[in-house]
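re: that chain from earlier
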Amino acid sequence: MGITKVGIIYNDTKSSALRAVKDLTELLETHHCQVHLTTGRNGILGFPNRTGPVCYTPINQVNAAGFDEEMGFAIVLGGDGTVLAAARQLAPKGIPQLNINTGHMGFLTETYLGQAHQAVEQVLAGEFRCEERSMLEVYVLRKQERVWEALVLNEAVVHKEPFTGMCHFEVKIGLHHLVDIAADGLIIATPTGSTAYALSAGGPVITPEVQVFQVVPICPHSLGARGLVYADSEPLILYPPSNHEHVILSTDGSSGCFVLPTDHIEISRSPYRTQIIRLKAPEFFEMLREKLGWGLPHIAKPESVELP
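^ sequence. v structure.
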């Protein structure tokens, strides 16, 4: 039996995405598919007010009506931000996502709007493969009580507010000894996130299939404080600086909470994995070349000419 139920998650601030929703819904209905719609906003947890109560939605409850295990796949219309928000909604239900770029970089997208019809037809025909991406589960604990949590595809970032200013973060990975890192902030990233904020902060690019995470200091205040790659089977505990009350945890750049000096943050590999639909065999290095200019051949120097 073929696919009979499909979701569409879209960026409702983009007119191109809104037009595509109508167009693709009509296409899916011609294939007798039941279509469910929601926006990327549903997967953005937001930032609570500092003086208000900490409110959050448990990881396995961040999903829209109708998006369940019976759904064959979901079409995601937007840029990388929408893809990240969609992953938070889809991964707990095991729903593969076909990411169609209506944004700018589109590092996580598979195709563009001009090829959307062809891409959807190909998926409905079963001519695709799924690439799985590891995710983080992030928990903030206050007096051993969980006060905030999030499912993360790219990275979790902890930093002081305002941003500039050195802090001492204490990090414990697995059974290893506690270490002190003096920096403006810390990034804990997945292989998917290695090409995002972690890359800008000097971290290495990690290919998606490698089972590791990385810790990257932001503007470290020591030559010895460099990035660290560790096995993703190891849980990480992060203790915020004890002398700063204005510390923020941010996840995937769109959600987070304030962290008190007495809190601690637990970060571990999630049992959920983002399933990205690929219409052809994935070629990660080609994506690096196209999106980030990595590995481009050097331009040959012109032959020397004699000056008149």
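Helices lie at 15-30, 80-90, 116-124, 197-200, 284-292.
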